[in-house]
Specification:
This protein has 115 residues and is mostly helical. It has helices at 2-19, 26-29, 48-60, 63-89. It contains four helices and no strands.
Length: 115
């Protein structure tokens, strides 16, 4: 009886290991064809307020303006997170860096930005 359980367990383990795709294989690491546009991106940024602005801009702006705004918001998102890390580490004791990235860049007057 123990031999039967061992045999069933062994066969199950072999079968599962053969069906799992190797994460280092070429097939697992080739990106799928992405023909997505900027309007398809739901939450491309790490900060919620930037994602909120992005969702509103997608509804109003054309593709070239979205591309320009995407680059500016990506840079803003990165700078804001760097500033938060500096502040959390206590490296900005004088508060000199606190006002450098507080304003979200505006590419179009029709898009309102949070303040």
């Amino acid at each position: 009886m123990k031999l039967l359980y061992f045999l069933v367990l062994f066969i199950t383990i072999i079968k599962v290991s053969l069906t799992i795709e190797n994460k280092y294989s070429a097939a697992a690491n080739t990106p799928e064809e992405e023909t997505r546009t900027l309007k398809d991106l739901e939450k491309p940024f790490r900060m919620q307020k930037v994602n909120l602005l992005w969702s509103k801009a997608k509804l109003r702006l054309t593709e070239p303006k979205l591309k320009s705004l995407f680059g500016a918001l990506k840079l803003y998102d990165k700078e804001e997170l760097v500033w938060k890390k500096v502040k959390a580490d206590g490296q900005d004791k004088d508060g000199l860096r606190s006002g450098t990235s507080k304003e979200i860049p505006r590419d179009n007057d029709n898009v309102r930005t949070p303040r």
